[in-house]
Design goal:
The structure is a single chain. This protein has about 140 residues and is α+β, with helices and mostly antiparallel strands. It has three domains: about 1-45, no CATH class; about 45-90; about 95-144, Wheat Germ Agglutinin (Isolectin 2), domain 1 (2-Layer Sandwich), CATH 3.30.60. The chain has seven helices and five strands; from the N terminus they run H-H-H-H-H-H-E-E-E-E-E-H. The strands form two sheets. Strands 1-2-3 form a three-stranded antiparallel beta sheet, with no helix packed on it. The protein has a two-stranded antiparallel ribbon with strand order 4-5. It is elongated. The protein starts with a helix and ends with a helix. Residues about 90-95 have low confidence and may be disordered.
Length: about 140
């Protein structure tokens, strides 16, 4: 049992340990809890602290890429996107080619008039990779 506890505390997951010992993951959890082990959260997902959230938003607005920030803080890119959306750093924080941050405003270039405009000037389109239509509201109304 001591070897099992040591292996779990060294970072091994309880599921592979359970498979190795021929028991279910629930049984492995019970054995570890009975041995006095404080279990890690399931799934290994990490949440950002309030201080980390503030730092992430500040670094993102300073120009850091989402992939870098996610790796730096040990979270998924989706967690990072949700954090940026809640903070209002980006409307639908999807860092896709074509969307850039200017100051604290997310902008995109219209494919018709080639003017760079805030994302609020584009209609939503869930079929597009960035979630926005490629032409701005102004070009969309004049083309009909």
């Amino acid at each position: 049992m001591n070897e099992l506890v040591e292996r779990y505390l060294s970072g091994e997951s309880s599921v592979p340990l359970a498979q190795e010992y021929g028991v279910t993951p629930a049984t492995m959890r019970r054995k570890l809890l009975k041995a006095g082990v404080v279990m890690r959260p399931r799934g290994g997902k990490r949440k950002l602290s309030l201080a980390d959230e503030a730092n992430v938003v500040e670094q993102f607005l300073a120009g850091e890429k989402q992939e870098y920030l996610a790796a730096l803080y040990g979270v998924t890119r989706r967690t990072l996107c949700r954090t940026l959306e809640r903070a209002g750093a980006v409307r639908a924080a999807r860092w896709i080619e074509g969307i850039h941050i200017v100051g604290a405003i997310a902008v995109k270039r219209c494919s018709s008039c080639w003017v760079t405009r805030p994302l609020a000037d584009f209609h939503d389109d869930s079929s597009k990779r960035d979630g926005m239509r490629s032409n701005c509201r102004y070009c969309a109304t004049t083309s009909t």
